[in-house]
Design a protein that fits this description.
With 77 residues, the chain is an alpha+beta fold. Helix content is 30%, strand content 29%. It contains two helices and three strands; from the N terminus they run ααβββ. It has a three-stranded antiparallel β-sheet with strand order 1-2-3, covered by helices on one side. Strand 2 and strand 3 form a beta hairpin. The longest helix is centred in the first third of the chain and has 13 residues.
């Protein structure tokens, strides 16, 4: 797949309303599909510009700052 096609595919996925929950958060894993750790690592790997990512499951939230496919900071609650 060419880089422009890959970028277009990622942008389409980010703007798709099908992957949002009732609060507006984007769902990256539903009922274990894909495996949650795979979904988290894919989100970090897809990150080019620095951004804040929060991953929640039940009462647990992991927050990371990622840039250029690297985790820059992390906290959990």
């Amino acid at each position: 797949m060419s880089e422009p096609n890959a970028l277009a595919q990622k942008l389409a996925m980010l703007t798709s309303g099908d992957t949002l929950d009732q609060s507006g958060a984007r769902l990256v894993s539903v009922d274990g599909d894909p495996v949650p750790i795979t979904a988290i690592l894919r989100e970090v790997d897809d990150t080019v510009l620095e951004r804040f990512l929060a991953f929640s499951c039940g009462d647990t939230t992991i927050e990371v700052v990622a840039a250029a496919t690297v985790v820059c900071a992390e906290s959990s609650a």
